[in-house]
Amino acid sequence: MTLALWPDFSALYRRLRWPAKHPNRLTLFYLALVGLFTLAAALLPPIDWDGLFYHLTAPKLFIQAHRISPGFDVPHFNFPFLAEMLFAYAMLLRGDIAAKLTHALYGLLLTGLVYLTARRHLSRESAWPSVLVLLSMPMIVTLAGWAYNDLALAFYQLAALYALLRGQGSGVRDRGSGVSNQKSVVSSQNTESKVLTFNLQPSTFNLHWLVLSGLFAGLSMGLKYTSFIGPLTIGLILLWWLIRKPFTIDNSQFTIHNFLKPLAVFVLPALLVALPWYLKNFFFTGNPFYPFLSGLFDGLFWDQFRADWYAQAGTGIGFDVKTLALLPVLATMGVRDANYFDGRTGPIFLAFLPLILLYGVFRYRVRATERPPALDALLIFALAQFLFWAMGVIWSQSLWQSRLLLPCLAALSPVVGWLWQDLTHLDRPQFSLRRFANLLIGLALALNLVELGLNFVQVNPLAYLTGQETRADYLTRRLGAYYAAMEQMNKTLPAQAQVLFLWEPRSYFCQVGCRPDSILDQLAHDHYLYGSAANIAAAWKKAGVTHVLLHRQGLEFIKSEGTEALSASALEQLAVLEAGYFAPVFDVVGAYQVYALK
């Protein structure tokens, strides 16, 4: 078949339009290795925490129920669920690995969008450097191998901004040509460089692009509650443009009506696309923003105790000036991140921070005519995302997750790529800043490849991918006691068993009835409601619980966090429960114990 169709494939390949400035061999080598490492990770069975907690678990339960069903005491099942619905579709087609590949596909889309943003709105020479900057972040490969939604969020938010810039009419324009002896960092050949100009004062708005921007903004709000900062920033940028510049629309003179029309064209599609998830929450729980804003809305399974436990208000860094000043450094190092592995940004953004400040804050007025107008929009968008993230880490330690900065860093990738290429203007005969930057960036990319290679060797995905290792063996090797406990529970307990988890939120591999401890507050909340061990056990029995899974390491984690709500009295009642109401069923290496509830 391949041989028969080879002439057609060859003809199609020749007709494809490739970028005029394709990357050089080193860049292609780096991109190929990153792509292979990413694909290998995405083809493995899921082991990621949030995937096993809710990103894959909720779609699995919905598939089993043949509908999107309410009644689960897992707050995360009522987050905006666009990505999870895509995962459900993929799981119906080919299982959970197909769901992981769906998220990996968003990584590819985001990479292409960064290339397109840089090429269209900054400069053609900055397109491939921008891609390298994006893929210098170790978190990209990590997240692409997990069933999360962060890459989808970054893609939709940057796509909304890109569409806004297209609607505004900014972009690179050629004006004449000249011969340059400067070789592009990522170009495989010496080419003529063109003098670029930009549309500084567009006369019309393309409303079709504004509709598309609104649609992308709405899709982003269907992924995370915190995503609203992106559409809000884009809407404010649009409003600022409308106030400052005399636009015309549809060849008509600028009027109050037309002043509102672009805003409506952006806002209405965004709200209509996002609205179904919030309506679903309202009908399922009584709170469109469940479990947040509980002071304004009543919520199923929710009360003030759980709201305080979940928010962890006051546990952040506070307004410590020194720590706030060091936020970019701390985010780069990942030393305070809630999860080190999914928040590594790499050193390139930190290295370019002084130049970003120079261009963004001081606007580099000496060369204002050569400054792309889109640069301001990208910097404002990134700044808004960073400030919103900083407010979160000031308030609560649970929000110190650098992966939440991904929309900010995705918008900064074209900026850094453009700055990298623009360093030529700062070169001096005695010292080339651009060559020095090439050296540092090359070193950072090489170190990233080394780390990816070492991780590849450690994980050894080829054992599973080549069939030498079964799915169960791989999961046992990677998840250890957790997967062993799930397998033992599935084999030992009756099909009608209802297992209450204590300090274990992951229930994806559970095949009997499982009630995960979604925010690790099950015992603390029940002690708050019922007081004594006898009353707690009676409440569990009344709710249909037949067994209890106790995760010892999860309990020790909560103790180490110093959570005041898990009081000494609650721990005393746990001891009473174990002594008088729990009948041991099995134990997995002291990490997990399963009991029958007497």
Question: Any overview of this molecule?
Answer:
With 598 residues, the chain is mainly alpha-helical. The chain has 2 domains: 28-170 and 191-196 and 204-459, no CATH class; 480-597, Rossmann fold (3-Layer(aba) Sandwich), CATH 3.40.50. Helix content is 59%, strand content 5%. It contains 27 helices and 7 strands. The strands form 2 sheets. Strands 4-3-5-7-6 form a 5-stranded mixed β-sheet. A two-stranded antiparallel ribbon has the order 1-2. A hairpin with a 3-residue loop joins strand 6 (582-588) and strand 7. Helix 4 (57-65) packs across helix 5. It is globular and about 80 Å long. The protein starts with a helix and ends with a strand. The model is unreliable at 174-203 (pLDDT under 50).
How would you sum up this structure in a few lines?
59% of the residues lie in helices and 5% in strands. The protein is mainly α and 598 residues long. The protein folds into 2 domains: 28-170 and 191-196 and 204-459, no CATH class; 480-597, Rossmann fold.
Number of domains: 2
Helix segment count? 27
Question: What's the end-to-end separation, in Å?
Answer: 64 Å
Per DSSP E runs of 2 or more residues, the count of β-strands stands at: 7
Strand content: 5-15%
Can you list the strand order of the major beta sheet? 4-3-5-7-6
Mean pLDDT: 84
Tell me, what's the shape?
globular
